[in-house]
């Protein structure tokens, strides 16, 4: 899908929070995010091919679908 130049805007993405056996709670402080309670968080994938757009006309589409 081609987007007209006038329709371009910054894309915001929903991060994917990964719980890991070796994780903890520090990523919440470092990234300034609220984390799921009682789960050891080890990774936060901010942008990847399957990231979901969180704003604008592409909301709900993955980055792969937008490109």
Description of the molecule:
The chain is α+β, with helices and mostly antiparallel strands and 67 residues long. The protein has one domain (12-66). Helix content is 15%, strand content 27%. The protein has helices at residues 26-31, 63-66, and strands at residues 13-14, 16-24, 41-45, 52-53. A two-stranded antiparallel sheet has the order 1-4. Strands 2-3 form a two-stranded antiparallel ribbon. The longest helix is centred in the middle third of the chain and has 6 residues, at 26-31. The chain is elongated. The termini are close together. The model has no long low-confidence stretch (mean pLDDT 89).
Q: In this structure, how is the largest beta sheet organized?
A: 2 strands, antiparallel
Helix content: 10-25%
**Can you count the beta strands?**
4
**Biggest sheet strand line-up:** 1-4
- What best-fitting shape do the alpha-carbon axes yield? elongated
Give the uncertain stretches in residue-range form: none
Number of helices: 2
What is the radius of gyration? 15 Å
Instruction: Determine the structural class based on helices, strands and strand pairing.
Output: alpha+beta
Instruction: Compute the number of structural domains.
Output: 1
- Strand proportion, as a percent range, falls in 25-35%
Taken in chain order, the helices and strands follow as EEHEEH
Mean pLDDT, to the nearest integer, reads: 89
End-to-end Cα distance = 8 Å
